[in-house]
Amino acid sequence: MTTAPWRDPALPAAARVADLLSRMTLREKTAQLYGVWVGAASDGDGVAPHQHDMTVDYDWAELITHGLGQLTRSFGTAPVDPALGAQALARAQRRIADAGRFGIPAVAHEECLAGFTAWQATAYPVPLAWGAAFDPPLVEEMARRIGGDLRAAGVHQGLAPVLDVVRDPRWGRVEETIGEDPYLTGTIGAAYVRGLESAGVVATLKHFAGYASSAGARNLAPVRAGVREFADVTLPPFEMALREGGARSVMAAYNETDGVPASADPALLTELLREQWGFTGTVVADYFGIGFLQTLHRVAGTPAQAAHAALAAGIDVELPTLKCYGEPLVEAIRAGEVPEELVDRAARRVLLQKCELGLLDEDWTPEPRAAHLDLDSPANRSVARRLAEKSVVLLDNPDGTLPLSPDARIAVVGPRAADALAMLGCYSFPSHVLTHHPEVPMGIEIPTVLEALRTELPDAKVTFAEGCGVLDPDPAGFEEAVARASEADVCLAVLGDRAGLFGRGTSGEGCDVTDLRLPGVQADLLDALVATGVPVVLVLLTGRPYALGRWQGRLAAAVQAFFPGEEGGPAVAGVLSGRVNPSGRLPVSVPRVPGGQPWTYLQPPLGLAGEVSNLDPTPLYAFGHGRSYTTFEWTDFTGGEAPTEISTDGSYDVSVTVRNTGDRAGAEVVQLYLHDPVASVTRPDVRLIGYQRVELTPGESSRVTFRFHTDLSSFTDRAGRRVVEPGVLELRLAASSADVRHTARLELTGPVRELGPERRLRCEAEVSGPG
After folding, report:
1. Tell me, what's the pLDDT at 57?
2. Band of the pLDDT at 55, cuts 50, 70, 90?
3. Which residues pair with residue 688 across a beta bridge?
4. Hey, CA dihedral for 251, 253, 254, 259, is it positive or negative?
5. What are the CB-based long-range contacts (under 8 Å, 24+) for 366-370?
6. What is residue 220's three-state secondary structure?
7. How far apart, in whole angstroms, are the C-alpha atoms of residue 469 and residue 439?
């Protein structure tokens, strides 16, 4: 028996795929370019926008005779036992392979934004909490565990991470982002990609690009970002995740930018992504995004025209449907309306990836390796706990109310205190899917803040009153809440968001808000608690920052946790008790007032407070802010008042010794910011270009050195070039964007230097022994 060249693993993948493509019919090639969502319903509420009117009916048995590109969310559509789900997926894959001439299975993909979105799988903290932890190695470890669980279940591709940079915190999907800074987003995102890819799972960067810059913070609204904002804020995290993380897939965004939908933009998906950045993987559509070119954007008159526009732009795979890349595309090619070469180009990319995944090998088998799948192992929970603990931000603690006394009388009040879902984001399985299956148990253990606090402080007298609902306007519960607080030594007001989809929550996809007031009547409840005179500690469990200036100087302490996952209750309780020394830092600014948005810290001079407007956008708590139960001293800084001259292609080391001067172990996050006093275009007053988390025991010190290269000062000039300009720069070592400890002045000399795609993206940091 002679093995066909495309089956021969000894041959280069490109040669194998070329041989296979030469044997395939048009229908067999197009079949590799779409996915199907077997368990998705076409009526009622769905888990994707317009799911009800974009789902296409088909005959499964007939469909798979031509092959199939992707299988959509076998685990993430309905609750299924993981082992049974893996077996069902294997049977489906075997059936797909047996039905076609070439025996090629589908790529199975799942959501994995904050863990494998499957029943009984670990629910990790959301990406905004990853940003708060400032700990790329731990995020990489988490992603490696997520990838291992996906692979064990038979899944090949994960639809994460989200690399959108927050531009307006009213946007519902802020919880899915890593923060408002492109450098933080890029470094944390690249770490996640490395972890997922190291487990053999294809990471999918989303949403490419500009999605978070929507006008008015509305989901899918038009984007009106300028070319420099797009180049210097939106794109760098994607570039870093591709170059440093090795992501093998990119998801085209829903949005349009300046009138051009991303899904029909060859300048974005081909010229930039492939020709400039050298990307060789697959580009997939966001769910129904190709059909939206016809129905929402109206740049195509028919599904075939939408298919043509998307293929020409560079989208290889339509997800999760065959509405455009199925029969409409085949008919358009046969009618001479779409060049078949576009199908060949996309099919080649898809098959090359399947070849990399081993799906073209003769010894491929879909059967799971293990009969039992534990998707919430103790090792998983340990990582979830560590990440949750590191992500909790102590916003303020002016009088040392925290940590709580172990035998205190504590009134716990608020709608988020006793609800397990308070820990979870929109893309966790319980929030995303189980709301449609109220009869099904949670599947994982999620201690609430109330439960965890009682475990953490067994000698304390803990009482509870809900006070109000998350969005319920009825203040009837205030009286009991105030009574419980009045009887206590301290009151914990546990407030925040409920994650949901398309308006069914206060945070999550399609849950955008008009301003940054606490949802419902929670602000009034907090006022009532503060009015008792009992010290009130505010504990926020949210998916975005909320305006807290109304309570400035009135709270005993404030703690912020961004949907910290299944171990979030113990993590928050550990911070309140003092078992955990808080070390999280804000990945987004906390505003003072609920209006005056959008605003992030990346502002040029006219975006800051000044005499030109009566509105002061200065945040209450700045990007990078976070307090500790210990103290740190920063000494022996390398740098002086006089500028140091370096060339526009030079480098400079900035060092400082950090010493723990308190009586307990803790972590300091040393942050490096760039200030460019004069440039040819306006620049952010400061922007993050480096950071290092440093763990120190009492009395211990470490030397932190940042190796700055002038590439990190580059920006997009008026001609659209990325350049380094001569002139003065300031490197600011800081504890937040607003808390500068030391400044080094540099004088860049020489000509303006234009940078290419190989520029340095990262400021390397080194931690050594005592300085």
Report:
1. 74
2. low
3. 673
4. negative
5. 366/89, 366/90, 366/91, 366/93, 366/94, 366/97, 366/105, 366/154, 367/90, 368/83, 368/86, 368/87, 368/90, 368/152, 368/153, 368/154, 369/152, 370/152
6. coil
7. 22
Report the length, in residues, of the chain: 771
DSSP tag of 475: -
Which single residue is written with the structure tokens 């067999």? 28
pTM of the model: 0.97
Give which of 405, 515, 462 is closest to 171, Cα–Cα: 515
What pLDDT is attached to residue 135?
A: 98
User: Sheet containing 644-647: which strands, arranged edge to edge?
Assistant: 644-647, 739-749, 727-736, 666-675, 687-696
Contact indicator for 394, 559 with CB cutoff of 8 Å? yes
3-state secondary structure of 704: strand
- Report CA-CA distances (Å) from 619 to 398, 519, 684: 18, 19, 16
Question: Are 509 and 374 a contacting pair, CB within 8 Å?
Answer: no
Round to whole Å and give the CA distance between 469 and 372.
Answer: 39
CA 52 to the chain's CA centroid: 26
Burial 292-311 (b: 16+ CB within 10 A, else e): bbbebbebbeebbbbbbbbb
Structure tokens at 183: 């450098």
**Beta bridge partner(s), residue 743:** 732
Q: Say which residues have a Cβ less than 8 Å from residue 669's Cβ, sequence separation at least 6.
A: 134, 583, 585, 624, 626, 691, 692, 693, 694, 735
> Residue for token digits 């400890």?
741
Q: Which pLDDT tens digit goes with each residue over 429-463?
A: 999 999 999 999 999 999 999 999 999 999 999 99
pLDDT, the chain, mean: 95
CA nearest neighbour of 693 among 44, 217, 7, 184: 184
3-class secondary-structure state, position 584? coil
